[in-house]
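Per-record layout

source: Actinia tenebrosa
name: Transmembrane protein 45B-like
length: 300
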Amino acid sequence: MGSFNGHAVPGFLFLLLSSWWALNVLFVYAKILRNRSASSDLNLTMRFKSTTWFPIHSRRFSKVPCESIVKFFLSSLGIALELFTDNSWILIKENGEFEETSLNNYAHSAMYGFFIFSALLECLQFWNALVLPKAGEHLALSFAFFVEGLLFYFHLHGRPVLDVRLHTLLYVVVFATSFVLVLEAWMKDSFLLLVVRVYLVMLQGTWFFQIAHSLYGANPWKDTPPNREFVAIAFSWHCLVLLFVWLVAFVLVSVKVRGCHTTPNTSTKLETFEVQKIVAHEAGDSERSSLIVDGEDTES
């Protein structure tokens, strides 16, 4: 991965995967909004089960785990490109020592191998060729991300400080993704965890592009203290922009499904006034407490 394409390609793949997941997350969100009753509060944990892959909503492809198959073949292609180009498959030299130029390729191939295992497990589960607890798919994908982070962690020895700092933020995101997937395995009815997982994978994709631009772009950054300090600022910008993207997406879906309402949330308003009554009562302000009646502050 020590090149622009070596970082841009996985960045593109992670962005492609997370964008596909994001579209399905928004589809699920819209479905939940449509199914909830008009008088009840929005409960995103009801009638929802997290999954590591999504089907294509088509009669022809809905009976095939297309996403898992694509992940399997793309990861296999990644291994082929890593090992069978420029004699990169040679791991041990004639003198018995490791071929240093091939170690990176084998590390990347190991990473792809775990994603192949995850995709294969999804396919076997889909076709009932393997019966495992449903959490198995989440744990397999979590382990794939964990190994990716582990390989990046030990990949930075002896690198320039700027290079290390850029990749450190990357493996932090990767480890966080692995951790969220473990939580999903045991709390599969949590819509929020699914959103966080997709957000982190999307962040991983954009940060891969940032690394490609910073280290191998037309004007590579110099390893200077100001550039090192700016890395954290750039990372925070990536996080913030993606948060706004998600916010806009959810607002658009909500407006599309429910329409644009300017009326405040009644349940939230009542809870706020209940808290006000309790605080006023505990403060000994009986007059103030008596003025807050049935969710309305009559003092004003």
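summary: The chain is about 70% helix and 0% strand. The beta strands are 292-293, 296-297.
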